[in-house]
């Protein structure tokens, strides 16, 4: 069902808490609000006065903890949790986090959101020294580095390890007596700190979790920071000064929940402003605005408000699609049977529709939705995208690691417009997007990482350098062939 | 979790097909688009050249057919299917439809959406004659009546039975050689007829299923009609002329999917017009419009467009709530931990909010959402409801059979406003609602049943007469007490 | 896996209790000891001071009640329960017993072990009168007859119904204020009465349940009896005097547990005596005795004791076979891969083996085991069967309703010996078996039904008469063809 | 349910194969026949021309591979598999074997039956050097040792590692191009080599697997051997000459399947001889012999044959006990409700019974069975045990690691007799047992490890030395107190 699955995936969400009598329960609710960041697996490690216990499993959080005992046994006043997205090949219980380590001289829980750019060479080097990696994820590299460090203090070991790994990362590390949170030097992945009414400290990939667990936002974790929370309070430290803010712009465009704030900017509001900017840059006549549910509804609101066109529910998503095992046969699909998204004839018939979407990855989804709208009687379909053309892979934690999967890596906007069968195709300009997000910072690109749009990566690429260069020469004709059929 | 579950439930959806080589598969997709009408159980009976086979189970459709074999074994070119909502007490596999009957002289599949008003007296009478009822639902009464009829022709028996049952009903009856659809004399419940590209006939509780299975809408089934579909085509017949159109208005307000059309009126469009009417009747100053997701988003669009106020995503619903077994403890809930709905501080802080909802049943949900918005910093919360005050029970298929569950049965709008803690409370007027829906008909109340609003039932109440009269005297002070706490 | 599944199945076991605070729990344990009589489904109906509640499901008892709540909710001081065996086609939840009936004027639970011989004509007659049957089993016929009876008293209705049904049956009927047990006029199926230490009355298909629940055996239910248990005690009544004892001899041979007593004769002891008789009738030289596990171990003990040959474990059954979903491919099977039964080379190598089995149905199992023993190095394999040749179908509750499935219906013992590849084949004589069982009675055939051996049925066959006569002409060459391959 | 669970458990079974097109399938059947050696988890790693894939899960084999795809995806011509028993605390998926290692320079599958005696100190030492252990089992120590070895050849590394670990072990190690099997220097755990008809080599913890997969036994793996199987054939090598045969005698007494041969001696035959010896040593008058099912049936056969007493089925085990989640409440248990084992009144009533069991661990089971027999009417109960008194813990792979769990560690046979309520208690003498097993060897104790009986361990105890010495002083009065109640 290629056309209905967004081929763009965040890699994980993390949540941690220190100082609450029902720490694992609160972590459960926090993770529940981060479920959109990873549906493949989840887990929690709780700290019960120095005793660490964990539970993790494949599936949605509700499946992972379907037996209430699994949560109840995670006693203690501190916890960390993780929801995981992963590529198909790595769907193994061993990769589900947090990892729980029980050494003769200490116990640790560890989880991670992001992607290391020097993981392959670090792993190889460590294996040559006799290290055995259990999972295929990058995460446990940090623990190997900590355990092998000769630095005399524990925090010294941790900082040494953080300076050795490269790329995008937000780590949570639970020890017997403290909770440590660390952010990469560019702040690629979001991580915020909050406080509950009872004084408990919480950290979360997104602030939407604070609303859910009744916590107040305190501040975001800054690039290069390592934060230590224990019974004496919170301590803000840094492991490097060589930092430069480059928040993943796709968090605003697509990944984050609309009710989260990143770097002080609300995601819904940013998207609505993208919709307004897009309306300003849009050059065509139209009758109604239709957002692709659910990620583009905010942008559609902004576009409608700015353009004065009515915002209509011309596409409806079936809310019961999460767990349907039975898919239409090819034959039925050709007869028009589809399950997840419907165009509403009585709304779009005879209308010139502006179809708002957040981004185009492979183009197959857009093409399918344009076709749905036409079959439902739309007179014209003008596609307007709330972000610029996706042309380059990401190596910091989003699952687009090859240009072959990106239609815009190989095709001009005009070609894409033709391929998806639209009457026109408008992308939001890079400047327009940066302005719409509107972070208060002097950093380049308004403090955002926009490398997938312009190919300018804010860091060296290490193990991916070669892969990246090779990808520049890839010329796939995949989609054009598809269209010819 | 009273405050997050709408205490208002449709009773069931039906789908039928005749003339398609993958009839059960198509029925599966049709039912999937009707899943919102019933999540407690589902089933399909397929007709394979006169051999009828069935499968039914408790749970969502995806659970009922989680083993693909269950669907594959339902061979044949015709099928009927059902999704069921039911009150807790009756959650028994025996009540899951369609029922499959295998007599020595014939086989039948039967399913039903609606509620009979003379079921109790019919059952008692039949039992006295030796009849044994298997399920506790009303549905099988029809089969007993057909089997006991002395009318010489089969269609004569069916019509006799249809004239004996009273209330709201849409029946699908599969025989070995035809598919029969029947509508009550008032057309309370929606039922539409469509045709697929290959000529197959489909019937469905809602037209959204036609979009999903690639069928074209032909027409709705009229009050008092009995329709026969077989290999020779479709035949429109009637079993009574004593009819009067009274479509359930709550279908437009809350139950039906926005992409369905009922009696030629699109549901999203009707809701948007209710929002516009509501904006005209609304008398207060405000800054932003916030719809309660998901049912009130259309009305919010209409309100925003008419009022010129910006439409904002000030409330966000977690999309992963369907299957969460672990609920916050009372203690956590008091600490502010909640799972399903969040108010977005950065959107509503300091704003005068118009909160749009479709209806108020018990008032607990509204009160909770008002509180969420206030905690998130809203300066004022003005509640605007897209329908009039719900004051009377329904006996035709909606699960509000006692006035004690309806806050407006006992309280004035002013009292309700105070109870839910809003700054103001505006209901759409009855006339406004009828006008917004705007059916083309000369029937009273614009062809709608509005009895829950005005207590004027379009039919005698039979077995419920006494219950109804008793309910008029019920004076519960349930909510006022709640508020005093 | 034809060769490892005994194509001979009992149809069901029943258990009932009156007067115990944990009636459903005790019933669970009672049924657990009757699990061998039916693994396809199970259920319990409990009586809580006149309120009847039930739970039933497909699968083993442990699956049916895998959620402890399912049992806990069955409150009350009386209960009836059922384990069901059924032919594949009827594996439907609707057939799982006990059935629970809720009429406006009374509630009933009903379950049944046996088979009616006039079910088809009774059903047809009742359907013509408007009756609707829910399940495909015979059981509900009794309830239809009771409900339609014009006899003024309830027990009068029950007796009238019992006199209308024909064949083999042991019924348990729970009403709001009593538990009724009834036996067919021949006592085909076993049913015993016991009493617990607290005075509670129990009825069970086999006395092994009494040992498990700590009850003392009181007496067996006699042919033509109807027994009423209520708070005032137990009452032995009869509904007919036209009775003649004909206990199913296969209960002793194969079905019943060795620790049960039927008509005062212990099953293990009867089997051991059959083994001794068989040894007396056996005419060959041999070195060791090997019983086919588990049903033939008692007979093997008897044979060894009588013959003086050592009893050896030359065949071992894997005890983990109940739930293996993965079966060897045909290819692996040809390579000798097998899962359930192993011959032990070090025990049988070079030995002349007497292989003891209880009966031969299709011959495929015996043939396979003979082959296993030969492959393991047995010098000779002499098959000795603890019962006579199975030649005729059973219509009273055992699943052999066609002669085509019985190798001895079509083949002489010499032919069978050749087909199964044995060096010799000895059946226990009919007289030997009757003597070994040794009931104290003057009834024909020592009070046993031996119709499958001699074709002389103790009752008219009603609806099966024609089928039986037709079967006499069936001459299948199925097995001979198999052997030629 | 203490009294029905044998507190004596084997730790695991292994199976491997090289050279069969359906290697994983054959491994599945092999493991299925070893299921009695471990029910907590299972797994298979298959080798598909150098690509290693694995699947492992908690539960019985049938649960682990309940989805046929899980087995089908394990393509390849070689495989190793494991069934695991484990103490409650370690029931974690991470401990389920085989482990699958994917290094940048090689892939390995590893599994293990046994227990290392220097695991704790090895782990600590390795962790100090930076090693991270994933599971809590001993098994992965071997891989750490191999990876850290500086020996230039791979087999050199393996042999170095095998010389470093101490205790009881049978390892299977799959590499990309060979299958390695290794046995500890005492041959504590059984491991045999066989060959299939197509030439494929198989290794298995027990020979019963060979019968199941159609393989011929070639020979057992000897103490100190390391065997390499690859496409060129099989190679027998040794890693140490410092060996002395000491096969675990409890394999013959209790663990192994009766159809397995260990060191050329069939287990059933050994048990039967133990029964005969026991009859010779038995000094009391009795009427019948009753074996405790299932482990003591062979010994009962031998006892009966030798003594001339009839062997009777006086105890019957319910064959459906594996998966019963619902257990009798304490109250019901006191009323005599029990589920797993029944005494047969009609068999034992008035009889002087010799009750044969294989061993006594805690005494609770024996006591319970004696009581069952008495309640069923046995006149006298003489307990005869097919092995000597269990007095000392085992550190080589059986789960009796503390003397506190062994009733005979603290009580004389006379006291035990009184505690279990028997009329007499006879243990087989140590010499009798050794003679009955009858291995052809000059090694001490007839080549058997009998340390649990005489406290003389065939090796140093390393990390357990201290624990063992401490246990000698433990004087628990646990059972006497129990009896006083």
From TrEMBL, chains A, B, C, D:
Question: The organism sits in which domain of life?
Answer: Bacteria
Name used for this protein in its record: Amidophosphoribosyltransferase
Query: Pathway it belongs to?
Result: Purine metabolism; IMP biosynthesis via de novo pathway; N(1)-(5-phospho-D-ribosyl)glycinamide from 5-phospho-alpha-D-ribose 1-diphosphate: step 1/2
The UniProt entry, under InterPro entries, shows:
GATase_2_dom (IPR017932), Ntn_hydrolases_N (IPR029055), PRTase-like (IPR029057), PRTase_dom (IPR000836), PurF (IPR005854), PurF_N (IPR035584)
Role description: Catalyzes the formation of phosphoribosylamine from phosphoribosylpyrophosphate (PRPP) and glutamine.
Q: Detail which positions bind Mg(2+).
A: 295, 357-358
Keywords associated with the record: Glutamine amidotransferase, Glycosyltransferase, Magnesium, Metal-binding, Purine biosynthesis, Transferase
Which PROSITE patterns has this protein been placed in? GATASE_TYPE_2 (PS51278)
> How, per the record, is the cofactor bound?
Binds 1 Mg(2+) ion per subunit.
The protein's organism comes out as Streptococcus caprae
Co-factor(s): Mg(2+)
| Molecular-function annotations in GO | amidophosphoribosyltransferase activity
User: Where are the catalytic residues?
Assistant: 12
Instruction: Please name the HAMAP family in this protein's record.
Output: PurF
Q: EC number(s) of the enzyme?
A: 2.4.2.14
Per UniProt, residues of the Glutamine amidotransferase type-2 domain are 12-232
Q: Which Pfam family is one of those matched by this entry?
A: GATase_6
Q: Which reaction does it catalyse?
A: 5-phospho-beta-D-ribosylamine + L-glutamate + diphosphate = 5-phospho-alpha-D-ribose 1-diphosphate + L-glutamine + H2O
Extract the PANTHER family matched here.
AMIDOPHOSPHORIBOSYLTRANSFERASE
Family recorded in the similarity comment: In the C-terminal section; belongs to the purine/pyrimidine phosphoribosyltransferase family.
């Amino acid at each position: 069902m290629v056309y209905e699955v967004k081929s763009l995936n965040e890699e994980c969400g993390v949540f941690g808490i220190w100082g609450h009598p029902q720490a694992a329960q609160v972590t459960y609710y926090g993770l529940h609000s981060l479920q959109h960041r990873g549906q493949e697996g989840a887990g929690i490690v709780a700290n019960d006065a120095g005793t660490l216990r964990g539970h993790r499993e494949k599936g949605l959080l509700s499946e992972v903890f379907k037996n209430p005992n699994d949560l109840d046994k995670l006693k203690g006043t501190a916890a960390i949790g993780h929801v995981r997205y992963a590529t198909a090949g790595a769907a193994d219980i061993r990769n589900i986090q947090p990892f729980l380590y029980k050494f003769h001289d200490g116990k640790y829980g560890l989880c991670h959101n992001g992607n290391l750019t020097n993981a392959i060479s670090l792993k190889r080097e460590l294996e040559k020294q006799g290290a055995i990696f259990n999972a295929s994820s990058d995460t446990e590299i940090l623990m190997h580095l900590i355990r092998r460090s000769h630095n005399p203090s524990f925090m010294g070991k941790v900082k040494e390890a953080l300076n050795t790994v490269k790329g995008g990362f937000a780590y949570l590390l639970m020890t017997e007596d403290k909770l440590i949170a660390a952010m990469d030097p560019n702040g690629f992945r979001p991580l915020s700190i909050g406080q509950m009414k009872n004084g408990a400290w919480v950290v979360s990939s997104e602030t939407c979790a604070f609303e859910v667990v009744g916590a107040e936002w305190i501040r975001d974790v800054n690039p290069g920071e390592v934060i230590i929370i224990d019974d004496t309070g919170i301590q803000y430290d840094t492991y490097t000064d060589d930092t430069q803010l480059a928040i993943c712009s796709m968090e605003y465009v697509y990944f984050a929940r609309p009710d989260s704030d990143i770097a002080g900017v609300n995601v819904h509001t940013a998207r609505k402003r993208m919709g307004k900017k897009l309306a300003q840059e849009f050059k065509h006549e139209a009758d109604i605005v239709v957002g692709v549910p659910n990620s583009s509804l905010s942008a559609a609101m902004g576009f409608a408000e700015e353009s004065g066109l009515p915002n209509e529910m011309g596409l409806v998503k079936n809310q019961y699609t999460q767990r349907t095992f039975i898919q239409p046969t090819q034959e039925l699909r050709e007869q028009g049977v589809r399950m997840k998204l419907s165009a509403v004839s009585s709304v779009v018939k005879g209308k010139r529709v502006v179809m708002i979407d957040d981004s185009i990855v492979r183009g197959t989804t857009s093409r399918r939705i344009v076709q749905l709208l036409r079959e439902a009687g739309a007179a014209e379909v003008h596609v307007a995208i709330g972000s610029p053309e996706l042309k380059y892979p990401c190596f910091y934690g989003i699952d687009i690691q090859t240009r072959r999967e990106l239609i815009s890596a190989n095709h001009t906007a005009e070609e894409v417009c033709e391929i998806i069968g639209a009457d026109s195709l408008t992308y939001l300009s890079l400047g327009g997007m940066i302005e719409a997000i509107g972070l208060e910072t002097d950093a380049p690109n308004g403090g955002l990482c926009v490398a997938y749009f312009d190919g300018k990566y804010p860091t060296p690429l290490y193990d991916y350098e070669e892969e990246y260069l090779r990808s520049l020469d890839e010329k796939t004709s995949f989609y054009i062939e598809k269209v010819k059929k």
